[in-house]
Amino acid sequence: MVQSEIIDPAVKGTLNVLRSCAKVPSIKRVIITSSMTSVSFNRKPLTPDVVVDETWFSDPVMCKEEKRWYHLSKTLAEEAAWKFAEECGIDLVVINPGFVIGPVIQPTPTFSIDIFLKLLNGNPTFPGGIYRCVDVRDVAHAHIQAFEIPAAGGRYCLVERTAHYFEFFKILHKLYPSLHLPEKWRLAPSREGASSGEDDDVDVGVLVEGGEGFGEFGEEVAGESVAIGRASEIIDPAVKGTLNVLRSCAKVPSIKRVIITSSMASVSFSRKPLTLDVVVDETWFSDPVMCKEEKLWYHLSKTLAEEAAWKFAEECGIDLVVINPGFVIGPVIQPTPTSSIDEFLKLVNGNPTFPGGIYRCVDVRDVAHAHIQAFEIAAAGGRYCLVERIAHHSEFFKILHKLYPSLHLPEKFEDDKPLLPVYKVSQDKAKSLGISFTPLEVTLGDTIESLKEKGFLTV
Fold it and tell me: Coiled-coil intervals in this record (predicted)?
């Protein structure tokens, strides 16, 4: 269970990303976010005179013996990354942050913030461990600087200080006397359930050096020139999450452009007729009323989130670029299928029938390329629809059957509804970014090969 749910995804996911990067000659550097849990958990003594630095590595054997599964996953993943980078000549930088806290921009708490909240919810006791603390803004800044500074390399430990829980509470009580904070220690938790790496039963402080090449800690995020956000798929979080990102960006004068990933779901779902002669382009917007009436909740969330983004950008003078991809398929690098790939798998897993709908298809590599170009091309602006072609399910299966005759594909429609017309989506603006769309035939073939390689599909 531990191997399959924690360790394998960490190691395989890291290597999948690196393998993909190794295939692209234009990628000059890869930056991976690891953790202090892959640095300081070994058999070396942690006494008050000890200074942990980037030469330290956690001991996998010790992590396994003490059932520190999160620590083990981070240690093995980073170890595999360095080995792969050396073999393939990749310029790798690894960021090793401690316990990351700070302002929250996403609609739900992160794992670290969730742990922080549990400490403030009126519990009568607190554990006797320590935290290796760092501000989320410093972590973000470090990643950007690791990308922008040519001389950056190796590992960077990011810890502002190591603090006991009681130091946390002393600071919090001074700032917010009305908070109901724990008042006494409790016994340390079982290692079986520990995963955050911040419950260490030691009563000494540990100094940590590292990250000096990125400048002073405690600064607001500064020096960046672009921020990329991705709207979520539920209405309130989609809108609020998008606005949270934009509000944060608006506070940083050095951010010159914000790029948001939206969807064709916010473009072509309106009351306009979609006939064979129609060409949808970036001037189209989905109709929220129609989406609500037809219970197209995903489409509604994307439409409202993008609408809110454009309104905020105009009011605050933000240079906003929105990428509107269609149905994204292509090679898989993550250890689990995306929602698009999961939907694709359902079509090729031997179902006897298939729906009569259409797909607005685009290759994931073209979507990634568009984001990079939108950042790098100064004249880029507005919206960019990304669709290689619109195809019925039947065209999908015709291509797949030709490529893989042994696939058990559906042979008939699941209902007698008439086929939807195949309209077109303009590629003119996307091509101004230098996008040369990958043909659907290539995308489908590469998708199948990737799914076979990951063990999601047997052909």
Answer: none
